[in-house]
Design brief:
The structure holds two protein chains of two kinds. By secondary structure, chain A is mainly alpha-helical. Chain A has helices at about 1-20, 25-45, 55-80, 90-115, 140-160, 160-170, 175-180, 185-210, 215-230, 235-255, 265-275, and strands at about 120, 130, 135, 210-215. Chain A contains eleven helices and four strands, in the order H-H-H-H-E-E-E-H-H-H-H-E-H-H-H. In chain A, a hairpin with a 2-residue loop joins strand 2 and strand 3 (about 135). The model of chain A is unreliable at about 285-290 (pLDDT under 50). The chains are: A mainly alpha, B alpha/beta. The interface of A and B includes residues 165, 168, 172, 176 and 183 of A.
Chain lengths: ~290, ~240
């Protein structure tokens, strides 16, 4: 699960890096991503295609559909909830807008998809190996590998492409970035789209792993991913990845050695300790910017 | 020719520019001098659309720029090197230069221009892969100017290029500004260092509390009683 937290955390951290805004609706974006994947599966079932096309292709298309749909949802969220507030100096106001958007999306999902668990198709073959004393299933390996590939992709995008360079420029100093000829609003939209599609992928994987999607699943997952982002140093992309993995490991060990009932508590206990001991996070900015 | 006509700029209730008009002819170096807070930087920000002006117009070769967004204005060949350098400290020197050429598509031309600015600023060449935040103040200023040149601007605006630099570095920067001008770029320079700037420039404008109070050739301004008393002090 650490890898999934890491994927969601990336969305938090990328948006914060650019706008210094905690997008509290990001957990709901993750939830919507999960439902978009499910929606696609329902379409496949209704049209009878689910029996025709091979399973790996169906899974792949689920990811693609969900990621594209959620990317547009993320862009829409930015356009409606954040862009009009861009010039407001009080940082509390966009935060409230984020909470509002989060409540809206949750209720929207509840009304559209119902308030109970929706069953995710068990299309992934239940397959596993025993390794030492742990059991590793195929889906776990699949999730881990997919997350790693996406993170590698994102890292390459951010560091090796012109788009990535302009994203970094906007996050460091958006006024100067505009002086270079960068369309800052466009970069912000793209950032929201990338962050949202990563969350959507996480949502589909989460649904496949636990077998359900629910309207309020974004709340806890979002908070944990936020913890992961803070743990790694918010605004810092490798930090979010590291934070996600650390959080997953700590949770598993906590659940295994202490009590699984307190599993969720460990995440937030850790958030508390980080904020007290090292507010800038594990990989937080240590080089001060020279003026 | 760049022409600024009767530009008024308000920040909330404060009027920063009360109807400023000035022009920069092709190939010129024009100095904008005046005290702190007189509105010099506001003129540059108004041209680049970083601040939304209340009235007035900016024309480039008789094309109206007012109302265009900053990226479009950059695309038309104007470039501002902002006050305080504002380089991307967490990017390498090389990446900063590439950012300057953001709107250009000609890969070979960009590489040629990087080589060109590196011969102009040999100090940057030694530090090409270093993070820009680790440069000294003077090197950062050089990088900011070099980055500005990477868009091949027709008009380059420099906001306080000598601020906070040691005198020997100021001389070096001013020498390079002269070279940039000789290669065909028109310049508008905002400076508190009035004598040095006027000696470099063809013409100048004196800005006082949001108005242009005096203009003329550099010689005229250098010999003007008013300018001598207000800005040249004991020099």
């Amino acid at each position: 699960m650490g890898a999934v937290y890491a994927l969601i955390a990336l969305g938090y951290t990328m948006v914060y890096g650019i706008l210094e805004l905690i997008n509290f609706a990001h957990g709901e974006i993750f939830m919507m991503g999960s439902f978009f994947g499910l929606l696609f599966w329902w379409i496949l079932e209704m049209t009878g295609l689910s029996k025709v096309i091979p399973i790996p292709l169906a899974i792949f298309l689920m990811f693609v559909f969900s990621m594209i749909a959620t990317a547009f949802l993320g862009a829409l969220l930015e356009f409606i909830a954040y862009r009009p507030l861009r010039s407001v100096t009080n940082r509390l106001i966009p935060l409230i807008s984020a909470l509002g958007a989060s409540i809206f999306l949750q209720n929207f999902a509840m009304l559209t998809f119902g308030s109970t668990n929706r069953v995710y198709p068990a299309i992934f073959p239940d397959f596993g190996w025993n390794l030492f004393h742990a059991r590793i299933s195929l889906i776990q390996i699949f999730i881990f590998v997919t997350c790693i590939l996406m993170m590698i992709g994102l890292t390459l995008l951010v560091h090796k492409t012109k788009l990535g360079r302009s994203m970094r420029a906007v996050s460091q100093d958006y006024v100067t970035a505009s002086l270079m000829g960068i369309r800052v609003n466009r970069i912000i939209t793209i950032t929201f789209m990338i962050g949202s599609s990563l969350a959507a992928a996480a949502g589909v994987m989460y649904g496949m792993y636990y077998g359900v999607a629910k309207f309020d699943m974004g709340y806890l997952a979002g908070l944990k991913a936020f913890t992961a982002a803070v743990l790694g140093g918010i605004g810092n992309i490798p930090g979010a990845m590291l934070g996600g993995f650390c959080l997953g490991i700590i949770e598993s060990f906590g659940a295994g050695y202490i009590s699984s009932e307190y599993k969720d508590m460990f995440a937030f206990l850790m958030l508390l300790f980080i904020l007290l001991l090292r507010p800038s996070g594990l990989l937080g900015q240590q080089v001060p910017d020279k003026v | 020719m760049l022409k600024i006509n009767n530009v008024v700029l308000r920040y909330g209730g404060i009027i920063a520019l009360k109807g400023v008009s000035l022009e920069v002819n092709k190939g010129e170096i024009v100095a904008l001098i005046g005290a702190n807070g007189a509105g010099k930087s506001s003129v540059l920000k108004s041209i680049m659309a970083l601040e939304k002006i209340s009235s007035g117009e900016v024309y480039l070769d008789n094309v109206l720029l007012t109302g265009l967004s900053t990226d479009k204005i950059v695309n038309m060949g104007l470039c501002l090197v902002p006050e305080g350098r504002r380089i991307f400290t967490r990017m390498s020197v090389h990446e900063n230069l590439l950012m300057g050429a953001f709107l250009r598509k000609d890969k070979q031309g960009i590489q040629d221009d990087i080589d060109k600015v590196l011969t102009l600023f040999p100090r940057l060449k030694e530090r090409l892969v270093q993070k820009a935040g680790t440069l000294s103040g003077g090197e950062q200023q050089m990088l900011a100017i070099a980055r500005g040149m990477m868009s091949r601007p027709k008009y380059l605006f420099l906001d306080e290029p000598s601020l906070g630099l040691a005198p020997v570095l100021v001389d070096e920067i001013f020498k390079i500004i002269k070279e940039i001008n000789e290669s065909g770029t028109s310049l508008l320079i905002v400076e508190q260092n009035a004598v040095k700037t006027l000696k470099l420039a063809n013409r100048g404008y004196v800005v006082e509390t949001g108005n242009v109070t005096l203009s003329g050739t550099s010689e005229e301004l250098l010999s003007s009683e008013h300018v001598r008393a207000a800005y040249l002090g004991g020099h």
